[in-house]
Design brief:
The protein is mainly alpha-helical and about 180 residues long. It is built from two helices and no strands.
């Protein structure tokens, strides 16, 4: 029975050693846990500060963006208005130039029409020259001859076309079935 007790005593000592090691490990883990909790708290505070700072910076950026948009819209509106005013001035100047040009052109046209009317009246009232009358008669005769020749050529062409069609039909009758 003493051997069993010795074994149990040895076993108890071993278990006590394991318990001491486990107790030391638990203490180390507790210290580590405490340290990590402290770090976590510091990190959470730092995160909260960063979030607050970021929110402030984001709000400031948003205000700056709104200010920039407002400023750019105002500048764009001013530029658009200036361009519109310039366009209106240029359009007015071009219209005035065009009106002046049209007036000058109408005046020149009236003068040209007046000169034309005078020349036409003078031309209409002049006597025909004998050589002009003779030349006109010759040209009228020439045109009449040309018309007659044209009609004869047209008739001759039709005759030749008919003859060609007849020959082709004849040829096809005689040689096409073979």
């Amino acid at each position: 029975h003493a051997a069993i007790e010795a074994k149990q005593a040895e076993r108890i000592r071993q278990l006590e050693g394991v318990e001491e090691r486990l107790t030391a490990a638990v203490a180390t883990l507790e210290e580590h846990k405490t340290r990590l909790e402290g770090e976590l708290g510091a990190t959470q505070r730092q995160l909260a500060e960063t979030q607050a700072t970021s929110a402030d910076q984001l709000a400031q950026l948003h205000r700056d963006w709104e200010d920039d948009v407002t400023r750019l819209n105002r500048e764009h509106e001013q530029q658009t208005q200036a361009a519109l005013e310039q366009h209106l001035e240029e359009t007015k100047a071009l219209q005035e130039e065009m009106a002046a040009g049209m007036a000058m052109m109408n005046e020149r046209r009236a003068e040209a029409e007046e000169r034309f009317d005078k020349l036409k009246t003078r031309f209409d009232n002049r006597e025909s020259r004998e050589e002009d009358v003779k030349k006109i008669q010759e040209l009228e005769l020439f045109i009449k001859q040309q018309d007659e020749e044209h009609a004869a050529m047209k008739q001759q062409l039709q005759i030749l076309k008919n003859e060609l069609v007849n020959r082709e039909e004849n040829f096809n009758k005689n040689f096409s079935s073979g």
